[in-house]
Write a structure and sequence with these properties.
four-stranded antiparallel β-sheet; alpha/beta; binds pyridoxal-5'-phosphate; Aspartate Aminotransferase, domain 1; eight-stranded mixed β-sheet; 15% strand
């Protein structure tokens, strides 16, 4: 008798694998320069300092044990000091919750804050890791566009005026992934005021804030409202393998997340959390380390912007390279970045088409370029290849038109 196939849950209906992850499989070819991945540079990660911290941590058997669900005590203490300085208010230990990367915070928060069909407002283009989580939670997703000053809070205000009532608004306030922009202070205040007035949460997702190149990022949205849940992470400043992210949220949110985290994984790793605590509390070393990452990323970002300008002139407009890991680039000549991609891959360069991050706008002429893992000369070659692919496609189109 043939076995009857048991079903999977209905939550999976309509969920797709991330287009970016699928694309990354293609771009793993050695001859392709990839501006597609969203990875920090492993060469800049402090391997020796991590090894020393691991050695020191293992001198006590305590780090081999299960730890408390909200996180390893010494790490929460360090985070309390850092986050009090960052938000300009005394953060209590109960408000600090350590997660398995900030991605887990997004996932647990979706469970804690969303009933099926609840409204979530995201930015357009959006961080796809957040979109996947909110979709899996059965949320109704409405997007608000970004501009050079970050989320268009005026559009959010209009949605609220029309009676929309979000459970939360998700924002990547600093050096947006994928949009490259940073929310202005005026918009941060305005968003906080709306959250207070209408009683919704803001999830301020901030893994890139410390990776500024020319000037520090503005004070977090969390400075202006108690309704802001702030997320950050060690992934981009230390190493993703630590899987250390953290959330600063009111006690009742942290306790609800704690219940769910116990179900998800009982607790995080005391070992990697102690390593993170060691590195984050070594303030002199940390400042020098982050400074060197900023300098390298800043040089690469500027090299990429310059190469794009030199090669494409006004046919591409990019965001400023002010921090983070990404440039967002728009073709002004109607080039379709999805159609261009196979030609770009043939020419030996990869990027992510804007459509991969689109929620309600199609971003057909946009792309995300990641500048973290290649040096200036390689980035210039990447742009030369992109220009060659673009010329081939434009000439092909012109020849077609003349037939
Ligand atoms: C905006 C944003 N949030 C969250 C994450 C997740 O980071 P992690 O789970 O490594 O802390 C990322 C990773 O790229 C991101 O870009």
């Amino acid at each position: 008798m043939r076995a009857t196939t048991p079903p999977l849950s209905r939550r999976l209906d309509g969920l797709q694998s991330s287009a970016i992850r699928d694309l990354l499989k293609l771009t793993a070819r050695a001859d392709i320069i990839s501006l597609a991945g969203g990875l920090p540079d492993a060469e800049l990660m402090p391997r020796d300092r991590i090894a020393a911290a691991a050695d020191a941590a293992l001198s006590s058997r305590g780090v081999l044990q299960y730890t408390e669900s909200p996180g390893w005590g010494p790490l929460r203490e360090v985070l309390r000091t850092r986050e009090s300085a960052r938000t300009g208010r005394p953060v209590s230990i109960e408000e600090i919750f350590v997660t398995h990367g900030s991605q887990q915070a997004l996932s647990l928060l979706a469970e804690v804050l969303l009933d099926p069909g609840a409204l979530v407002i995201v930015e357009d283009p959006a961080y796809v890791g957040a979109l996947q989580v909110f979709r899996a939670a059965g949320a109704r997703i409405v997007a608000v566009p970004l501009d050079a000053e970050g989320m268009r809070v005026d559009v959010l205000r209009e949605l609220l005026a029309r009676g929309e009532r979000p459970a939360f608004v998700h924002t990547v306030s600093n050096f947006h992934n994928p949009g490259g922009v940073t929310m202005s202070t005026a918009r941060r205040r305005e968003l906080a005021e709306l959250a207070d007035a209408h009683g919704f949460w803001v999830i301020e997702d901030d893994p890139y804030g410390e990776l500024w190149f020319d000037a520090p990022a503005p004070a977090p949205v969390a400075t202006y409202s108690p309704n802001v849940i702030r997320l950050s992470s060690a992934s981009k400043i230390l190493a993703p393998t630590l899987r250390v992210g953290w959330m600063i949220a009111p006690d009742r949110v942290c306790r609800a997340v704690e219940l769910l985290k116990q179900g998800a994984d009982l607790c995080g790793s005391a070992l990697t959390q102690q390593i993170a605590a060691d590195l984050l509390s070594d303030t002199e070393w940390l400042a020098a380390h982050i400074d060197s990452v900023r300098t390298r990323y800043g040089q690469r970002a500027h090299a990429l912007v310059e190469a794009v300008r030199a090669r494409f002139g006004d046919r591409i407009v990019t965001t400023d390279a002010a921090g983070g890991m990404f440039l967002w680039a728009d073709f002004t000549d109607g080039t379709d970045t999805r159609a261009l991609l196979p030609h770009a891959l043939d020419a030996g360069v990869a990027y992510v088409p804007g459509s991969a991050f689109a929620v309600s706008t199609d971003y057909a002429h946009s792309m995300r370029l990641c500048f973290t893992t290649s040096d200036a000369t390689v980035l210039t070659t990447a742009v030369d290849r992109l220009a060659a692919a673009h010329t081939a496609v434009s000439e092909g189109a012109r020849a077609q038109a003349q037939l």
